[in-house]
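During the first year of the project, the team set up a workflow for recording each protein of interest as an amino acid sequence followed immediately by a discrete structure-token representation. This format lets reviewers and collaborators read both layers of information side by side without switching files. As required by the reporting guidelines, we include two representative entries from the current panel. The first entry is reproduced here exactly as it appears in our internal archive.
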Amino acid sequence: AQVYTLFGKVLGTIDEAAFMMLYERLRDSASWGREDRRGALNHITTTRVAQAAEEIRSGRTVSLAAAVENEVSLDNPDPSQHRMTGPSEPEVGLSLQFALDRFAMNIHGNADSHLDTLSHVLYQGTLYNGVPADKVGVSSELSLDVARDGIVGRGVLLDIPRVEGRRWLEPGESVTGEALAAAETAQHVTVGPGDLLFVRVGHRPRRDHYGPWDAAQARAGLHPAAMQFLAERRVALLGSDGNNDTAPSVVAGVGFPVHVLAIHAMGMQLLDYLHLEALLALCEEQDRWSFMCVIAPLRLPAATG
């Protein structure tokens, strides 16, 4: 198999031995001690949060989340369900009634924006930092509860299609570390310690243009080797308008290598399937690619996202 990447490069699949070398190198570079449960969030210090607040200049805000969908599609076969629970029959004449409703949805998938916690990826029988796999779903250890106070920091958007004057990457294309560095140069911004990095591949506008497709089988994402770029810059969190992983996978025997490297080796939480177009428009308008970013997860103690 071959994967076509930016700048005319063609990369073959990575064998398991090479992937394990990369995994071990990234794991060793991200060691916070055996008791650590925060992982890359340790890069966000109080000083860096205060510095992130200095990014606020225009006072304008945009959401990075796509609207939750409730219709079946090729990339969302089991969408959210919404039903009204009250009142069953609105009664004319009553002075007060309350409308009540209930949502049920999968946390993970290929359509809705979501956060992957450190309890999301089980690899070789364990969670991040050797935490036993039986902690999943029954303990707040490594779960969404780790981010219960919110994740606040300096956000940086790197628009990869912009480097080549394209609207989006095609499914199967991979973003290399060289592409990330080229986007930095083109946008006059530098990714630094504690940053929340958002990598745009154009998944959402392509989906809007062509309609949904089976993104589980084909999508643009990061090449596993690009995670070395994030390790060197000491990034605290990675987000994308895709799944962050390329499909088909470029690693033999590992379906989601970027998830394994980010979450399991580096302790880095991921944001998948964001909607970055409103942010992109604002960044282009102001020619500024860094901003204060606030992520406010629900208080779901044992959740994987």
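The second entry, processed by the same pipeline in the following quarter, appears below.
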Amino acid sequence: MKVKNTAKILIFCILFLFFLNRIYDIFTWKDMVGDYTSPMETFYSLEEDVVDVLFLGSSHSYCSVIPAQLWEDYGMAGFSLALSGQDLAGSYYNLVEALKTQEPKVVCVDLYGCALQGYQIEGNLYRNILPRKLSLSSLEAVNHMVETDNKSDFILKWPIIHTRYKELKKQDFAKKSPVYLGYRAEFVAEGAAKLNFANVEPKPFREQEQQWLKKIIDLARESGAEPVFVVAPYQIPLQEQEYIAYAKKMAEEYKVPVVDMVEVSEHIGLNWETDFIDYGHTNYWGAQKVTDYLGEYLKNHYELPDRRGDDRYALWDLDLKTRQHEWTNYVLSGICDRQIYFEELSRLEDYTVVVSTTGEYISGEAEIESCLQMLGGFHEYGNGSNVWVIDNKENIYVSNTGEAFKNLPLTYGELLVSVNGNTTNVMVDRTAYQKTADGVNVLVYDNLLGIVVDSVGFEAMYAYGMTR
């Protein structure tokens, strides 16, 4: 009897732990930067010893360096463990975590951390603590980085994340393949005031930050990696210029090279009005220029292997494809010419395109039908309402009966198309996408990223003019 009871208790404990772990996966902290994931989540999925260049730092770092560009141009296996508001203690403990499974040859450290004094923004502390796996080093990180009395909450995590039930979304329940290597493109150009370079005197920043910087240098070198200090381009206040000048003085003392992207901003053609999201972060075009310069520097100063073609680096190929999709989506959503739009649609791969004719759509209109024919497979439209679903350039569904109701799976969701008399409806995850009641509607879904990219209507009564 005791054996049976013990077995039941053991089975209950195993099932309870399994259930608890699944619930934790759903409730766990999700960073809204990087396609609803954290670079730490992706990092834990890596094979051992695949990262050659490791980037540490804050948003200044992850907005400035594009690992996919380093991969495409040089075959460098770069990975960024930069997170919003990451101070030098956070950079140190991310390096500790990285060295458990990786042997980077170069460690690039963002010097913005010199100006930080702990975490004034609670969300940034969550980002830098909660994604870590439980270990002795993660306990040390909590002890050094959390300055409040609720350190146990960061260790247990449940006291912090249990209230997330109020904000759960469908993404929380989907198991997405991690493709976030530490950069997500921003196609916004708000601009920043041009920096006034000052001949500042070095000013010591906090002693404890100096100690963390020294610890990063020592740990990198002990592991066989070369530390490099990087100053990401941003509009640096005077005091922070003084701190960075002091960090450069430390770099000289410890023989650490410094790549100051502010000093070379004119050389690389950085435009302070068009290459920034705001005063502190480069956009996609600015990051391209920074990455190009940094890539050349790394190539010329370190022996970094070209990993392209190696099966162990499939994630880098996928990351490059992801960045290419982001660019394609940006371009597509900005096209206002009907002919050019359909030409672009006809070239898309790894996309689902849904075309519907509805209401007063009339066949035989040469301008619109010639555009539709670019997508292939459109025959005998008739004057009624119809839906075509084209997945990766192949017709997977055609409704030409006048009455239809069809559910189709998408990468991370569900497509519903219906035809009822003279009306068509297209929905993705219960959201309707209908730009015109009379004419042609087009919905574009990115199969790789799992998102609706564009929804466009062509109004019959306005000569099939384009509307979003």
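For the second entry, the following points were noted during internal review. The first strand starts at residue 53 and ends at 56. The mean pLDDT is 86. Both points are flagged for discussion at the upcoming steering committee meeting.
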